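ugh ok fine here u go
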Amino acid sequence: MKLDAAFFDTLSRFRIRMGHKSSMNMTGNRKSVQKGSSTEFSDFREYMPGDDIRRIDWNAYGRLDRLYVKEYMEEKEAVVSVLIDTSASMDFGTKKKSELACKLAAAFGYLGLNNMDRVVVYDLQRMQSPFQVTGGKKGFLRIVDWLEQCEFQGTVDILEAIKKLPMKGPGVTILLSDFLQESFLDRDGDAVEKLLRFLEYRRQRPVLLHVLAGEELTVEAVGTRNLIDMEDKSALRLTLDAASIRVYEKALQEFTTHIRRTCARHGAFYAICSTERDFQQLVFQDLRELYDI
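structure:
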């Protein structure tokens, strides 16, 4: 996983937009609904015995002849959850989807740690064993090491895996997947809708990053081919010509449009992440709406 120092220098200027105020119990760089001791003013209230007299507003006392204290928003740690689809289909492509997913996961892990958030990385096939990192940028290399150990094989039931996401307070949940499974391709089941409703219930800002290989987005192969499913090993003999490629492109467009529109209805972020896209342009341009800058 090669990411240069200049990339991280630029990345350090960004922060993931949460969409929810944090209410965790550890200090960090996020504003909480609880009152605390940060420098961001929140409100006034009447003085009560035991209050810090340094917070008394003497100007208000001079005008109203009553003691008031200033309250400030408390800074709290937020949770950045990064979920990686490790099914075999993610290991496809001349430039593999799995490699792009891991690079994106590393970038978001760095963003979270740089802002003193708690970062939790999940392998969707092993939701019971999340990898949790706190303590700032010093924990970043641990995330990189964990990602380099990920194996992309077998199958994943994305919706069932998401339901095992533990309750960790409000935050942002970033899902990296190609979404190539029957429940997402089947409109009647509408797995996308169920997924987003669950994350909303858990007070998460959903971010769906649709990782696709260049060969999946632009079909250039022609002729008769034996296509083998990477997960269940089933085979399909297919003749690729202009007509069949148009049918595929239309189905892909309908598939991605459906996910995009469902996300838009729920206020979730959605983007297609192509393995052919320059990584820095992908992170800093295509995904720009994800950040507070």
